[in-house]
Amino acid sequence: MDLLEPPRVVERPQQDYLGIRVVTPFRGMLSKRNELLTELDTWLTKQGIDDVGPFFLRLHVIDMSGPMDLEVGVVTQGRLDGDDRVRPDVLPAGAYATLTYRNHSLRANRALIDWAEENGVRFDRYDVPEGDKFACRYEAFRTDPRTEPRKTKWEVELNFLTLPGAT
Fold first, then answer.
1. What are 127's strand-pairing partners?
2. What is the pLDDT of residues 125-159, one digit of tens each?
């Protein structure tokens, strides 16, 4: 993993977005992400929406040995209408534990989780029967996946919403 920006906590404003949410097995999750990125980009083009970015992968519920509740989305300049498949939502405002990396998502996630534990930062998450549920956990693609197909070259900003007063 190339660590481009170290772990830290930053305040983020609420951001509107459009996204496609699915439940898919952990194995094959990244192929599903790629498929959904293409689907969302095609939908945006058909709608004539081009003032967007960045694209991201949001993890709602994580079960590394079972199904993952995930969403591929793109930040928009205000709330936009969607349809039955592409839906509007928001990334909530708050304090986020974050780092920026290139390559090796699992290592980057482990690095941020370890940093948070060492520094008393608590994520806004809880256990549910389906796995670990997060109020907001996402990977923003600073590199536009439409112009750089090599995922090992993507600059990715990892973000976990923290509990109030957890920093």
1. 132
2. 999 999 999 999 999 999 998 899 888 999 999 99
pLDDT digits (tens, 9 = 90+) for 41-93: 999 999 999 888 899 999 999 998 889 999 999 999 999 999 999 999 999 99
What would the two tokens of residue 95 be? 């304090």
151 vs 48: CA distance, rounded Å? 26
The answer to whether the pTM exceeds 0.90 is yes
3-class secondary structure, 17: strand
Residue percentage of the chain with pLDDT more than 70: 99
Q: Please report which residue ranges of the chain form alpha helices under DSSP H.
A: 29-47, 105-118
Give residue 106's Cα distance to chain centre: 13
CA atoms within 13 A on the CB side of 120: 4
The Cα-based distances of 59 to 19, 49, 133, 148, 165 in angstroms read 12, 24, 8, 22, 23
**In angstroms, what CA-CA distances link 122 with 9, 14, 125, 128?**
11, 20, 8, 17
Name, in order, each residue with C-beta under 8 angstroms of 25's C-beta and a sequence gap of 6 or more: 66, 67, 68
Closest alpha carbon to 166 in 71, 64, 96, 110: 96
List the end-to-end C-alpha distance of the chain, in Å, as a whole number.
25
